[in-house]
Design a protein that fits this description.
Blueprint lengths: L9 H13 L5 E5 L7 H18 L2 E5 L3 H4 L4 E6 L2 E6 L13
Parallel strand pairs: 1-2
Antiparallel strand pairs: 3-4
């Protein structure tokens, strides 16, 4: 709170950006490498939070990542290769209680 953004580490800046994005409880969140500057433990905590928001509040999350650990948590994957997008089922089936689940 007492520091300028330039005085924060990359991970601290990233956590502040995620908090700012979530503060107004959006229905859709677009996230480009939201965990890219975070250590593995913090990355997993952030992903658990985003998954909880998806399950409890119906948050639609569109996330871009190069982190295979993050991608494995997705319900659906879009893979961009040679300028073409292919949609693939994710590794994790939707929760029966999740919004929009069959």
């Amino acid at each position: 709170m007492r520091h300028l953004p330039s005085e924060l580490s990359g991970g601290q800046q990233q956590r502040v950006a995620i908090a700012r994005a979530l503060i107004k409880q959006p229905k859709v969140l677009l996230a480009d490498e939201p965990t890219g500057n975070l250590d593995e433990g913090t990355r997993d905590d952030i992903m658990k939070l985003l998954e909880k928001l998806w399950q409890d509040r119906g948050l639609t999350l569109v996330l871009v990542t190069h982190d295979s650990q993050v991608a494995r948590r997705a319900q659906r994957l879009g893979v961009m290769s040679q300028g073409k997008l292919s949609i693939q089922p994710g590794a994790r089936p939707p929760s029966p209680d999740a919004p929009g689940a069959p």
